[in-house]
Amino acid sequence: MKGAYGQAEVNRRSYRKLKESVLQAYGGKCCRCGFDDRRALQVDHVHGGGNRQIRKLGGGAEVLRLIRKLNYPMDYQLLCANCNWIKRYEAQEVAVCPPRPRIVTGKVVCPGGLYV
Ligand SMILES: [Zn+2]
User: Which residues surround ligand 1, an ion (CB under 5 A)?
Assistant: First the structure.
């Protein structure tokens, strides 16, 4: 009998194996910049809508299972976390807030620099 901890470990290993198979199928590196550190690689939906699909399917692992089941369709690609966020900004999938100055110990700090 494995117990709760043992089962969690099995689930973790199974997830890692699943994610690794998807990473390998899509070339194992960011398709924009070539970054290949597995810890920062993300499966991206080429046409957007990834978060909606994750919510609909009930989690990222379910999306990976679907991708494997569909034999790694071209609707997905690998992006590193930086390129993924840049793509989301470019596609305006995230709200871009105008920079707001904030006060820190008597000085006005702006995201682009510091002025007194
Ligand atoms: Zn990248």
Answer: 30, 32-33, 35, 80, 83
